[in-house]
Amino acid sequence: MQTPTSPKVGLTLAAIQLFFTLSWTVYVIFLPQLAAQVGIAKEAVLLILLMDQLIFLVADTAMGVVADKSVRVFGRLGRWVVIATVLSCAAFLLLPLVAAQGPGVQWLFLACTVVWSVTSSALRAPPLVLLGKYAKVSSIPWLASLSFFGLGVAGALAPYLTVTLRGVDPRWPFALSSIALALATFGIVWAERSLKQGAVAVTPTVEAASDALLKKPPVLPFLAAMALLGVGFQVHFSLNTAPLYLRFAQPAQLEYLMPVFWVGFSLLMLAASRPVARFGGVWVMAIAACVGAWATWLTTVAGSLPLLVAAQFVAGGAWGILMMSAFTSALVIGRTGREGLVTGSMFSLLALAAFARIGIVAAQLNKDASLVPLIAWLPTVAWVVAGLVLLAMARLLRGQRSTDSA
Fold first, then answer.
1. Structure letter (DSSP) for residue 42
2. Cα–chain-centroid distance for residue 293?
3. Local structure of residue 238 (DSSP, 8 states)
4. Which helix (H) or strand (E) holds 146?
5. Partner of 252 at 20 to 30 A CA spacing, among 13, 258, 274, 368?
6. Is the pLDDT reported for residue 229 higher than 90?
7. Per-residue pLDDT tens for 362-406?
């Protein structure tokens, strides 16, 4: 089943990603304050964040499998995602209200956190399953890029929110983000209906035109490369970027400099959707990984702020292209019937990378003088290795195409 490109569907998914990511930003900003109100020690906040990532690690794959089963009945996936999101928003909304009760409600606070973490996984893999199930193969890169555009915008806004929400009553941002996310998620019901109504039978001619995109890469090397890319991103942006900027700028300037990465993420990702449709996701991923490795290396040796900003823009663009082309490839790998399993597995790997990054901070390894140089170079090494794996996979797929054509 395929449908012509529908930008409104991609924009709907972008809105969901935008408000979901902003809600996570609000959560991270206020978690130390809320935890302190219920009597949870400051040192335990990182443990809560680690718990969240472990939940995502399991729930993302599980939600993907549920999405694969739900999409077999038209209309069920959209309704299921809306119900899970409403429950998620309710748990999220309760967090500041429970915290206001003071010490003695730690377990209730943690229970709300667990419910929010589990149910929020319905907003990662399941919406993308709709694209893999109904969208025309050649339109998936463009629709995926529109969807992840919301993630890029949210990432760019995060530094401003951190400053703007300082001292604000947490009940307001929690309420506003919950309502906005719930309203945006209702759009997935329309998206499912729109994709289904526009679906047409796949013709051999159409499929042949997308031959490079349709080739399925081997799953295990593909997921291994994605794990390396996720670790490289987490360490580069969350651990290395701010210290790199502080070599040339004042702390007050970080709110203007940190978004550069996400501006590059959004703009270059949109521009790369056409090459992915033409040459396939793995080739584009391989090139983006190599370019990203070069850009992260350049950030570590940049001798001026303008050069550092330019390198960060390119690194962000490389990560955006990697995200879009990786999930395009994942939908192709899972097509048809396992889209949720493969995309859910990828989100689980990204959660594992975030877990590793938070673990580094919790163990204060990023402050160990002997390890700081290794952490600085880790993104470059991880992306180089991933790029080599992806290049080997791309050559393998090209060899398969040559054999098929012969």
1. G
2. 19
3. I
4. helix 140-164
5. 368
6. yes
7. 999 988 888 989 999 999 999 999 999 999 998 887 766 545 544
Catalogue the long-range contacts made by 175-181 (C-beta closer than 8 Å, 24 or more residues apart).
Answer: 175/93, 177/19, 177/22, 177/23, 177/26, 177/92, 178/23, 178/89, 178/90, 178/92, 178/93, 179/89, 180/19, 180/22, 181/16, 181/19, 181/20, 181/23, 181/85, 181/89, 181/123
Residue 286: domain span: 7-405
Which tokens hold the place of 61?
Answer: 């794959």
Q: Quick one: tokens of 192? A: 């499912």
Task: Kindly report the CATH number assigned to the domain that includes residue 316.
Answer: 1.20.1250.20
Q: What is the mean pLDDT of residues 67-75?
A: 74
Residue 94: inside a domain, yes or no?
yes
329-359 per-position pLDDT tens digit:
888 888 777 888 889 999 999 999 999 999 9
Residue at 1 is within a domain:
no
Give CA–CA dist 134/5, Å, rounded.
11
DSSP 262-273: HHHHHHHHHHTH
> What are the E-state strand segments in 18-101?
none
Check: CB of residue 63 under 8 Å from CB of residue 125.
yes
Q: How far is CA 206 from CA 2, 137, 196, 378, 397, in A?
A: 10, 9, 18, 42, 20
User: Could you tell me if residue 350 is inside a domain?
Assistant: yes
Sign of CA dihedral 326, 331, 335, 340: positive
| Coil, strand or helix at 2 | strand
Q: Give the pTM.
A: 0.91
Residue 2, in any domain of the structure: no
Sign of CA dihedral 90, 96, 99, 100: negative
Residue 263 has pLDDT above 50, yes or no: yes
Helix ranges restricted to H, 165-218:
171-185, 187-197, 204-209, 211-214
